[in-house]
Write a structure and sequence with these properties.
It comes from Gordonia sihwensis NBRC 108236. It contains 22 helices and two strands. By secondary structure, the protein is an all-alpha fold. The protein has two domains: about 450 residues, MFS general substrate transporter like domains (Growth Hormone, Chain: A); about 55 residues.
């Protein structure tokens, strides 16, 4: 192991760190892309497996619930078996799940195999963050998070492009089979590149905590995800699991502060930087991932674009993020994340607010520019927040901090998607009633028509009241973006308290920062 004191030239990322980063990024790409790629394939699953939109949606919900169930075990697993073993085991499980998904014969088997895939994918990001943070050291966590942030920010953008392209030129099976070559390369790469050791064979798992936190997160997210299908939070199928899940999570919090070896050490919240980072990340994920749901829908439903074209129209967002993310990562290490996050949130708010004026013929140049501005803000926001949460942690705290931030991000993004979906659905309800009363499709609401790919621009589908239906739908998207803009603006409040100077762990003066572990 080599090391050097903080504040020297070693603050730059070296070759050893980039080698480790390569394998972590490959795993992250698979895990994150798989969420958005499968979202594109929903209509295909409906026709191939003769199921409803609700049935097909379980291919996404099952994966999400598996992620929620397994993420809390990341810290313990890393300590018990070592990060290299856990990361490689997760890759293998994800690969097996991917192959089985491609072999699914009905929607039930697909959902079951997606759950298996989720158990592997759920550990890739938190374990990957642990590996990267330990390899680079706290002094360079901003730069290393910028590298890891590329798949996290580009996944939602590249997923629709890749998914649409694969389905068009091949078949839905390749949505999953594309993971195989990437996964095999990552597995071989991990075997040779990742540092071994670090395991504590005698470390016991906190079974009471596991029985509270994992089911609690899964039940809570099941209720949240069900709200998108039910189009309200006011039904027992939604609030029932949410209440039970919340009770279990609260019980875990009570338990974690009263046991010596909790599944997740919540005493980390005594660290004010971590506490502010968690609050900021929660609000940011709710706002960003909630708004991200609407962009491709608008392009497909209102403008009649294909899924592939909708993905291409989102590309400026990724380009903007790629420009600012490396700069923000390096500067975060030098002056802290506070200034960059605030500036980034302002850019995101401006970009989201531009969509409030949506119409049926809004200029694509204007919308792409707005998405590019959002991307600039994204690159200055998400990973600096992650950096702030981990830069002041040391030793075993890194494992708990990484696990905590991934659980928070997963939960918050699901909440954001659900909230925006319910708001959009509620705003569409009057339009649905008007169309049905005027002789439109009496068997489907406007939401169901959109979900099932019915061309709402066809007068035969929407009836006499639907002559201006596209204009009304575009206005509904615009009104929903008012809420999204407000959520982004709300994130400015906790972001104001993020550090605006170089972040240093409490014991930096006493311990050298590791450069690479071999």
């Amino acid at each position: 192991m080599t090391s050097s004191p903080p504040g020297t030239a070693s603050d730059k990322l070296g070759r050893d760190v980039f080698i480790v980063a390569g394998v972590v990024v490959l795993g992250a790409i698979m895990s994150i892309l798989d969420v958005t790629v499968v979202a594109v394939a929903q209509p295909t699953f409906m026709s191939e497996f003769d199921t409803t939109s609700a049935g097909a949606a379980w291919s996404m919900t099952g994966y999400t619930l598996a992620l929620a169930a397994v993420i809390p075990t990341a810290s313990w697993a890393a300590s018990r078996f070592g990060t290299k073993r856990v990361y490689m085991a997760s890759l293998i499980l994800f690969l097996i799940g991917s192959v089985l998904c491609a072999m699914a014969w009905n929607i039930g088997s697909l959902v079951a195999f997606r759950v298996l895939q989720g158990f592997g994918g759920g550990l890739l990001m938190p374990i990957g963050m642990m590996i990267m943070t330990r390899a680079a050291g706290p002094e360079r966590v901003g730069s290393v998070m910028a590298v890891l942030g590329i798949p996290m920010l580009l996944g939602p953008i590249m997923g629709p492009i890749l998914g649409g392209w694969l389905i068009e030129i091949a078949s839905w099976h390749w949505v999953f089979l594309i993971n195989v070559p990437i996964g095999v390369i990552a597995l071989v790469y991990a075997f040779f590149a990742l540092p071994g050791g670090g395991a504590e064979p005698g470390k016991k798992i906190d079974f009471p905590g596991l029985l509270m936190l994992s089911p609690g997160l899964a039940l809570f997210l099941f209720g949240v995800s069900s709200s998108a299908e039910e189009r309200t939070f006011g039904t027992p199928r939604v609030y029932g699991p949410m209440i039970v899940g919340a009770i279990l999570i609260i019980a875990f919090v009570w338990h974690a502060f009263r046991t010596t070896n909790p599944l997740l050490d919540l005493r980390l919240f005594r660290n004010s930087t971590l506490r502010v980072s968690v609050i900021t990340m929660s609000l940011f994920a709710i706002a960003f991932f909630g708004a991200s749901l609407l962009y491709p829908q608008y392009f497909i439903v209102v403008r009649g674009e294909s899924t592939l074209m909708a993905g291409l129209l989102l590309a400026p967002q990724g380009l903007g993020a790629m420009l600012t993310m490396p700069i923000a990562g390096k500067m975060t290490d030098k002056i802290g994340p506070g200034k960059f996050v605030l500036a980034g949130l302002v850019l995101i708010a401006v970009g989201v607010a531009a969509f409030i004026t949506l119409g049926t013929d809004t200029s694509y140049w204007f919308l792409c520019l707005a998405l590019f501005v959002q991307g600039l803000g994204m690159g200055m926001t998400m990973m600096p927040i992650m950096s702030a949460s981990l830069a002041t942690l040391r030793g075993s705290e890194i494992a708990d901090g990484s696990t905590l931030m991934n659980a928070i991000q997963q939960t918050s993004s699901s909440i954001g998607t659900a909230v925006i979906t319910v708001i959009f659905t509620t705003m569409l309800a009057p339009l649905s009633r008007a169309i049905m009363q005027a002789g439109g499709d009496q068997t489907k609401t406007m939401n169901a028509m959109i979900e099932n790919g019915v061309d709402v621009r066809d007068p035969a589908a929407v009836g006499a009241a639907g002559q201006n239906v596209i204009s009304d739908i575009a206005s509904t998207y615009g009104n929903t973006f008012i809420v999204a803009t407000a959520l982004v603006a709300l994130t400015l409040i906790p972001a104001f308290f993020l550090p605006r100077k170089k972040m240093v762990a409490a014991d930096t003066e006493e311990q050298p920062v590791p450069v690479a572990l071999h």
